[in-house]
Amino acid sequence: MSRYYLPNGMRYASLKEREQFYEQEFILRKVEHWFQGRMEKPVFAVIIGRHTHIYPPKYEDDASTTIIIDEYKNLKEVKNLLLEFLPEAVYYDRNVYDAKGKIIGQELAFDLDPENITCPIHGSLSEKMKRHQGLSFCELELQMIKEQAINLYEYLEKTFFLLEIVYSGRGFHIHVFDKNAYEMKRAERKKLAKSVKTKGFAIDEWVTSGDMRLIRLPYSLHGLVSRIVLSLKLNEVSEFDPQRDDRCIPRFLKR
Questions:
Q1: The model's pTM
Q2: In CA terms, which of 19, 96, 105, 133 is 20 to 30 Å from 254?
Q3: Whole-number mean pLDDT of the chain?
């Protein structure tokens, strides 16, 4: 049973459902396209069952651990590992490394999650945390964070040119692929994060500043809400309804 209150139709995915998704619906071609021209061999990471407390029994000791996947031959091997771990969440490392493993850049990203919205019904994040409901969100918070994502994208367009918006399963991510963004120093990232935050956007500064280098992998399954992480065009976002849009609903919820 879910520990968190979620919008209607969203729920935890079972181990069997995770397996069905990664076996039948996880499309490697789309994942490959996401990284094309930017990362030759990305580093992946999984969390098996930290928030849902659903995990294969043999991985009980590692259920809350962030497991790094950096040694693999190809994406098919990564898929096989996902079928082994059956994770609730899959991420990739935004850092760019040279042949010797030295960090030479980082993809700039903005993470907007509904728990960072002060909800007229459920209150602020600190109030939700006191009720042990930090990851909970309602339909109103989902709508509010969607509007923030659109506004932030339009704000960032004044500075950057290569932007992608992604429905993350709970909120939205905005990825910046401009060359000069990859080259930004940590101090510049922190300054930008604070500037965006002061303009009223509910971003996770930890992500934008680069302190958190992992971000959810597009086209993976968000196991907390049973939704597919989906790349969107800006003109699609305003009408996008993750409660009903077939593109982000896995087959196991359509039966």
A1: 0.95
A2: 133
A3: 94
